[in-house]
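[Q] Does anyone have a clean structure-token version of this?
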Amino acid sequence: MDIKIRKFDRNYIIDVSGEIDLYNAYRLKDVVRGMIEKQVHIFILSLKKATYIDSSGVGALMSVNAMLAQAGRSFRLVNVAKPVMRVLELTKLVGFLPINSNELEAIESVAGRQQSAR
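[A] Here you go.
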């Protein structure tokens, strides 16, 4: 798994490529923890180039979701690759995890959520 971080305005986009599995799922959680410590508030996780996800990877996504919710941070999954989306559908997480089709939709969704919270 390869993880790259891009910044767009106030939003951080975490690009994940390759396999998210038992051997490397912890890295995703570590990256998010580090970004929380640096006071990042908006997280967009792009899975466009993710080729595979196993139960450890699903667990990492759930952990990231819980960690960010507890910290009061905004989180969205975007560009979910078909093999990963299939696993999320099979595990019934599509309605549970915040998934948007692309980065712009995610940014607009987060902005709308923040405005309604005011």
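[Q] Thanks! Anything notable?
[A] The first helix runs from residue 25 to 37.
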